[in-house]
């Protein structure tokens, strides 16, 4: 059995805000994905310098980092979208239980029903 005190944190959760955060991570993922062409252009640059080897090494590291971050941001986006849906369902279920039982925490009574 779930006790009300264990789900009171749902009152503070906002699925629209979670979804907005998810969209920001999606934007960052797409931004990093769009850098692929810039890395390709940078690797085609031909020049001679004492730092050429270091440049190529650092460029490779930056590309790997950007690829890893892009994948991570894509995963965070997907997780937050799922979490927002789960929070919405949990709030709905909590509201239903609240309406069916007495007493209900005063702050829960004003929750809008979707």
In short:
The protein is mainly α and 114 residues long. The chain is 71% helix and 0% strand.
What does this structure look like?
It contains four helices and no strands. With 114 residues, the protein is mainly α. It starts with a helix and ends in a 14-residue tail after the last helix. The model has no long low-confidence stretch (mean pLDDT 85).
Helical percent range? over 70%
Number of strands: 0
Mean pLDDT: 85
> Sheet with the most strands?
none
* Unreliable runs: none
Q: State the distance separating the first and last CA atoms.
A: 25 Å
* Helical stretch tally: 4
Question: What structural class do the secondary elements suggest?
Answer: mainly alpha
Percentage of residues in DSSP E strands: under 5%
Rg for CA atoms: 24 Å
3D shape: rod-shaped
> What's the SSE pattern?
HHHH
Keywords:
single chain; 114 residues; mainly alpha; 71% helix; 0% strand; rod-shaped
Task: Give the topology.
Blueprint lengths: L3 H4 L7 H19 L2 H9 L7 H49 L14
């Amino acid at each position: 059995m779930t006790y009300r005190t264990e789900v009171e944190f749902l009152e503070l959760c906002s699925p629209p805000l979670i979804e907005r955060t998810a969209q920001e991570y999606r934007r960052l993922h797409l931004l990093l994905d769009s850098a692929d062409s810039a890395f390709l252009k940078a690797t085609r640059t031909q020049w001679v310098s004492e730092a050429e080897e270091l440049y190529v090494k650092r460029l490779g590291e930056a590309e790997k980092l950007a690829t890893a971050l892009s994948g991570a941001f894509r995963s965070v986006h997907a997780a937050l979208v799922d979490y927002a849906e789960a929070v919405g369902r949990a709030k709905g279920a909590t509201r239903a239980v609240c309406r069916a039982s007495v007493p209900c925490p005063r702050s829960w009574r004003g929750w809008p029903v979707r």
